[in-house]
TrEMBL record:
Full protein name: Peptidase S9 prolyl oligopeptidase catalytic domain-containing protein
Residue ranges of domain Peptidase S9 prolyl oligopeptidase catalytic in the record: 78-223
GO molecular function: palmitoyl-(protein) hydrolase activity; serine-type peptidase activity
A GO BP entry: proteolysis
Lineage: Eukaryota, Viridiplantae, Streptophyta, Embryophyta, Tracheophyta
GO cellular component, one term: membrane
Transmembrane segments: none
InterPro entries noted in UniProt: AB_hydrolase_fold, Peptidase_S9_cat
């Protein structure tokens, strides 16, 4: 599909209709993936998500990812995310008042910006194992860089911060979000320290009374949804229901 002037790959998976549920009345989750892989690698998880949450799921392959055209950049990916949301809003086969943004890792940074920029079109945000900023992550992935690159909370002069072209400063973005936010944190995350999620929650909750933080003791960076089991899905299901209650017949 043409989005942002580029040919971007997407996947839209409807919830199967039944006598009790229909795609039209179900929530739609706009899911933003992690840095690695492409949307095809998320189909197993999405299949389970649809069964557990009775929702529709829309996924977008960022520019430069998978078979999508272009080159990745923070500015470009934000444009792609906005184009995906605009596409959903224009559809007539879903309930556009029930659009939720779900981002994991890098996808959380993308989703946070999109949610902040669209207070009237995004019902709520779900963040899973997301970092506070790329500047903070630089010192985690390459420890020797922590003396030269770091976020606003780090000590000392950070002389090489200017080299980071896509800072993804999620810690500041979440403080501006007014929609409900669910934070899902895998405590065994081997890539993004769980402290990043705690800091994101603390920053958001200081400005937003509709924040919920849930930990999963055995969850790692990519498998919290597996390790969390029924508790993981029930947590999200309750969050969706409380955010947009079902209409009474």
């Amino acid at each position: 599909m043409k989005m942002s002037g580029l040919d971007l790959r997407m996947a839209y998976v409807f919830m199967p209709g039944s006598s009790s549920f229909s795609p039209k009345g179900s929530p739609t989750i706009l899911f933003f993936q992690e840095n690695a892989g492409n949307i095809a690698h998320r189909l197993e998880m999405v299949h389970i998500m649809i069964q557990q949450l009775r929702c529709n799921v829309f996924m977008l392959s960022y520019r430069g990812y998978g078979a999508s055209d272009g080159y990745p950049s923070q500015h470009g990916i934000i444009k792609d995310a906005q184009a995906a949301l605009d596409h959903l809003i224009q559809r007539t086969d879903i309930e556009t008042s029930k659009i939720f943004v779900f981002g994991r890792s890098l996808g959380g940074a993308v989703g946070a910006v999109l949610t902040k920029n669209n207070p009237d079109n995004v019902s709520a945000l779900i963040l899973e194992n997301t970092f506070t900023s790329i500047l903070d992550m630089a010192g985690v992935l390459l420890p020797f860089l922590k003396w030269f690159i770091g976020g606003s909370g780090s000590k000392g002069l950070k002389l090489l911060n200017f080299l980071v072209r896509s800072p993804w400063n999620t810690i500041d973005v979440v403080s501006e979000i007014r929609q409900p936010i669910l934070f899902l944190s895998g405590l065994q995350d081997e890539m993004v320290p769980p402290s990043h999620m705690s800091k994101l929650y603390a920053k958001a909750a200081a400005h937003n009374n509709h924040c919920l933080f849930v930990e999963f003791p055995t969850g790692m960076h990519m498998n919290t949804w597996l390790e969390g089991g029924d508790h993981y899905w029930m947590t999200i299901q309750r969050f969706l229901q409380q955010t947009v209650p079902e209409k009474s017949e």
